[in-house]
Design brief:
This protein is mostly helical. The protein has a domain at 502-627: Heat Shock Protein 90 (2-Layer Sandwich). Helices cover 74% and strands 6% of the residues. It has helices spanning 4-19, 33-53, 58-75, 78-92, 97-114, 120-133, 137-154, 157-173, 177-193, 197-208, 214-228, 235-248, 252-268, 272-289, 292-310, 313-330, 333-383, 388-464, 470-494, 496-499, 504-519, 536-556, 594-605, and strands at 522-526, 561-568, 572-579, 609-614, 620-627. Strands 1-2-3-5-4 form a five-stranded mixed sheet, with helices on one face. It starts with a helix and ends in a 9-residue tail after the last strand.
Length: 636
């Protein structure tokens, strides 16, 4: 159901295109020359406005394109009608790429049917860009090559340079760095030969990314900015180059100056994505400078509200991760944990949105391609009536296979996204638990150090007290020393680094003894007769699970009898826990706190399963099954 509406939209657009075929305008009625000149001039002015606002204000750009389309229809000229479709495609390119493809495809068909090729290079370029966005690289290469060929015939060197830059981006996306550099060099050489400054700047900025010498790279980037400044509408390109310069700068103050320049450009020309990236980079500069308050202000007062306003889940995920880093530096680990989870949720939402957009675009491409095949078949049927039945069957078979293949691709993408999400969740849980272990280790060390000092201090104070009965004094001193010893032993068990000095049986038995002493809880422990040989990860997580279960029992079920049983099979370690305490509503376990959720997370990290059975007034039981042969989980 998730992809139902994008697919229907794609077929609907194809249906409309098939129902209303593009035909050349025949015998146009004469138009008043003054009105003709006014309409043509207006379309040219609107052309400039569409290009100027496509990035900074897509909605306004669409309004200009629609007005130009109206003027083009009034002119009843095929050339201007093609121009109108091109402007509509350009205006929708950033916001609704499937609509953009629809209009460029109409422009291409009208161009071919009327043999009006003036705008064909730019049509090929944008169709290539759309195919590139849809990851149809073979079609994208063919369209970019067609763009270069057609533009060469017309000597439109600006479009040629543009197409080579598009091919460079495509090669870079395919991890073919050498070919990408060749394409960018070709773009720069053509632009430089014909003094096309904006294309020179874009190509030079792309080339600078591959320069290993920082000094040379900086020189190239500054030269690229100087070229881009010579033409309006290149502010986004300049801002991104400034971000790259700042990112590569070694000095935080130098980096900040470049980020602020990019920030100024983005503010003046409505470039929210660049603005958020600039603030995000500034955060780490301020962290390096030790100014955590300013780093937090960049995110809380500027970048994060802008990400929410623009509904940019991709950048909101990045910004949330950055804010978590700031909170970790400030020592607020709980808040950092919350923002890490916000980042993960936003990343999942962004990935799902991107996948849906790509599926919708693929649906449109597939539908229109299928429509073209159908039209060609119908033309052949008119010429070859005797083969009509055979060709119709062939078309139906191809269509069925295409639909089956399309459904298979969607299912495969869904499954891949599910696996990716699970891996991300496990990776995130590992990071969170690692943070908890580090915090427990730090607390254990501090508890160990403070306990020794306190025991010595209190013992000294008692020694100085005038207690007549020396036996009572020695008994008090002995109990204080025993207490200190017990606290140090507890601190050892809290510290992950110290756990390796105990056997698994010693850890579990010691934990049960600690809880008995502290709470008076009755604990019945059963362990296998043979020593358990477990790897470090299983020991750590199982021990922490027991800690959590017994701690909760000590809090809420002190009058209860607790049963802890370990069973070992050839392949599994089975832990069963039970108490006859007050219990709780197991359906509300997510609201009971992080402790119980950590039991599930730790079991999941061991590729195991945790099951809880509890209800108010009926006690609590757990069954936790852990495989003895652990699988490695690939993190992302």
């Amino acid at each position: 159901m998730k992809y139902r509406y994008p697919i229907i939209l794609g077929f609907f657009l194809g249906f409309l295109l098939g129902c209303f075929p593009l035909k050349p305008v025949a015998n146009p009625l004469p138009i008043d020359p003054s009105k003709l000149s006014f309409l043509k001039d207006s379309i040219q002015k609107l052309d400039s406005l569409v290009k100027k606002t496509t990035i900074s204000n897509p909605r306004l750009s669409i309004g200009y394109a629609r007005k130009a389309m109206g003027y083009a229809r009034s002119l009843k000229s095929n050339e201007e009608l093609i121009h109108g479709y091109v402007l509509m495609g350009q205006a929708y390119h950033k916001s609704m790429i499937d609509s953009s493809y629809f209009y460029f495809n109409k422009a291409l068909k009208l161009s071919d049917s009327t043999r009006n090729f003036n705008l064909k290079p730019i049509i090929f370029y944008f169709l290539g860009s759309i195919s590139y966005d849809a990851k149809d690289f073979k079609r994208a290469i063919n369209l970019f090559d067609s763009c270069i060929h057609q533009a060469s015939i017309q000597k439109n060197y600006s479009i040629i340079s543009w197409a080579y830059n598009g091919l460079g981006n495509l090669e870079l996306d395919n991890k073919n760095q050498e070919n990408a550099i060749i394409m960018y060099d070709s773009s720069y050489i053509i632009a430089k030969r014909h003094l096309i400054y904006d294309k020179m700047g874009v190509a030079l900025g792309s080339i600078a990314r591959f320069e290993k010498d920082p000094v040379k790279a900086l020189k190239l980037e500054r030269e690229a900015i100087s070229y881009l400044k010579k033409k309006s509408g290149t502010e986004e390109g300049m801002a991104r180059i400034l971000l790259n310069i700042g990112y590569n700068a070694q000095n935080p103050d130098t980096a900040l100056s470049y980020f602020k320049q990019a920030l100024k450009l983005s503010g003046n020309h409505n470039l929210p994505e660049v603005e958020m990236l600039a603030y995000n980079n500034m955060v780490y500069c301020y962290i390096d400078k030790g100014n955590l308050q300013e780093a937090e202000n960049c995110l809380v007062l500027h970048a994060i509200p802008l990400a929410k306003l623009t509904k940019n889940n991709d950048l909101f995920s990045t910004l949330s991760d950055s804010y978590a880093d700031v909170l970790v530096k400030k020592g607020d680990f709980q808040a950092a944990d919350t923002w890490r989870k916000n980042a993960l949720r936003a990343r999942v939402t962004a990935d799902v949105t991107q996948a849906s957009e790509q599926v919708r675009l693929l649906g449109v491409l597939l539908d229109l391609k299928s429509k073209e095949v159908t039209i060609q078949d119908k033309e052949k049927e008119l010429l070859l009536q005797q083969n009509r039945l055979q060709k119709t069957r062939l078309v139906l078979i191809i269509t069925v296979f295409l639909i089956i293949g399309f459904i298979f691709v969607i299912l495969w993408l869904q499954q891949r996204n599910r696996v990716k999400l699970q891996v991300q969740q496990i990776s995130s849980a590992k990071r969170i638990i690692e943070m908890e272990e580090n915090e427990k280790g730090r607390t254990a060390r501090e508890l160990h150090d403070i306990t020794g000092q306190l025991v010595m201090g209190i013992t000294g104070e008692i020694e100085n007290l005038d207690i007549p009965d020396n036996k009572i004094k020695e008994e008090i001193k002995g109990k204080i020393k025993d207490l200190g010893k017990s606290i140090r032993l507890i601190s050892h068990r809290m510290n992950k680094a110290m756990l390796e000095h105990f056997t698994f049986e010693e850890l579990i038995t010691g934990q049960c003894d600690d809880i008995r002493k502290l709470t008076g809880l009755q604990i019945e422990l059963e362990m296998p007769d043979e020593p358990l040989e477990l790897n470090e990860e299983v020991v750590l997580h199982t021990y922490r699970i027991i800690q959590e279960l017994l701690t909760n029992a000590g809090k809420y079920a002190r009058e209860s009898i607790v049963s802890v049983i370990f069973l070992k099979t050839p392949t599994e370690l089975i832990l069963t826990y039970g108490d006859n305490g007050p219990g709780f509503d197991a359906s509300l376990i997510e609201k009971k706190g992080m402790g119980l959720m950590n039991i599930f997370e730790r079991a999941k990290l061991l590729n195991g399963v945790a099951k809880v059975n509890s209800s108010p007034g009926k006690g609590t039981s757990w069954e936790i099954i852990i495989p003895l042969l652990q699988k490695k989980v690939k993190t992302v």
